[in-house]
């Protein structure tokens, strides 16, 4: 799968979880999900589940820990789907 | 020493009921005696004996007014939905403002009860867990299934920083929450309390009652006639659901804010029969019921002759006549001297944990509008009832009347009782 396709899909997934006072265009490749985008830590669990559903993959403990920014997530998905 | 009780008033209300959503729509539905009991296809598909229910009708528009798209994802706890809608309506009805971002309202608390929460969500979780897929539960399983989910949710939305809790006492839950909030303000421990209760819809909360064979089974073709409190042919209670909510506030604060006052809470009582005497898990101890009513009058410093109207528990089981007997003996009033009494359960069914709060909204509307809503589905009053009180005490039509003091009681599964005394407020 192309990285830009993955990027678009991930942006779509992440935007759902943005707090109401964070604009959608705040989501950048290097955005830290919790620190920059203010996403509640509990929702990281839901983002991981949405990513699993979108790509039919399974994320393990290590993947979850490494998934700090949007580009981290793209890297993990690219590896699992290549 | 602070030993003089603060006076407490009702300054906001919210309701999600089977026959109407929102306080003004609910007032109209009760005035016009509109039924919210409908055929329930899900109960029929699952082979329930009783295939009718009182389920609130929630539009997508109302959902999107009260929840963000993210909050709605995977939201299956119907009681949580009803409670949030009713709680936010009461808060906004009282003219209160959500706390600023970095500081909670330290003088405002929440007591919002329920019997259980999110049975359907819990079912989903159980299936995932049993399949070894616990990590697929997501982040909202806890908030939707914990009893205090409703009070926690509302605390976050509104920014309440005083005591925040969820009580549970079966059919008394709403009336109990109301009284506990009243006591907290009267004792000077809070200025405003959001109180109320909620109850889920659906087979997982109603199934146990169907199994106990205490729900009507012969009205599946004509649901509006199924709930028949006080009638000689009462056939069991119709399962219902919904939520009722109130802002209780010290009179001082309400006057200071220039808030609209619905009624004053004069006092009340909570007790239990302890499964002694004629009491059991499912039957009330009559002496305790009478004690509860008497203690409520004493707490409110009201004589029994001052009671202008009663909103009963009256579920449409064989216990309705026993309830009338207990009211009559506790108040020492019978025949034509007995106060006008009514129940809304003929229109909304028995909303279980939400019954007390939904019915209290109606009772307080009666005080505000100075009218008593009519009873329905009475073929003939049960003879054990007419042996005690005159049939004129049970009107089948909505009537204008002077209501200065009203008594509302709830009597619950587990032999628990709650009675509250309300008074018209003259500003």
UniProtKB/TrEMBL annotation, chain A:
Protein name: Acyl carrier protein
Domain of life of the organism encoding this protein: Bacteria
Gene3D superfamilies: ACP-like
Source organism per UniProt: Nonlabens dokdonensis
InterPro entries registered for this protein in UniProt: ACP-like_sf, PP-bd_ACP
Matches recorded under SUPFAM superfamilies: ACP-like (SSF47336)
Domain (Carrier): residue spans on this chain: 4-81
Signal peptide positions (record): none
Automatic annotation (TrEMBL), chain B:
Domain of life: Bacteria
Gene Ontology biological process terms, A to Z: fatty acid biosynthetic process
PROSITE patterns in the cross-refs: KS3_2
GO molecular function, one term: 3-oxoacyl-[acyl-carrier-protein] synthase activity
Reaction equation(s) it catalyzes: a fatty acyl-[ACP] + malonyl-[ACP] + H(+) = a 3-oxoacyl-[ACP] + holo-[ACP] + CO2; (3Z)-decenoyl-[ACP] + malonyl-[ACP] + H(+) = 3-oxo-(5Z)-dodecenoyl-[ACP] + holo-[ACP] + CO2
Class of enzymatic activity (EC top level): transferase
Localization: Cytoplasm
Record keyword Cytoplasm present: yes
Domain Ketosynthase family 3 (KS3): 5-424
Pfam families in the record: ketoacyl-synt, Ketoacyl-synt_C
EC number assigned by the record: 2.3.1.41
Keywords: Acyltransferase, Cytoplasm, Transferase
Recorded GO CC terms: cytosol
Oligomer and partners: Homodimer.
Similarity annotation: Belongs to the thiolase-like superfamily. Beta-ketoacyl-ACP synthases family.
Name of the molecule in the record: 3-oxoacyl-[acyl-carrier-protein] synthase 1
Organism field: Nonlabens dokdonensis
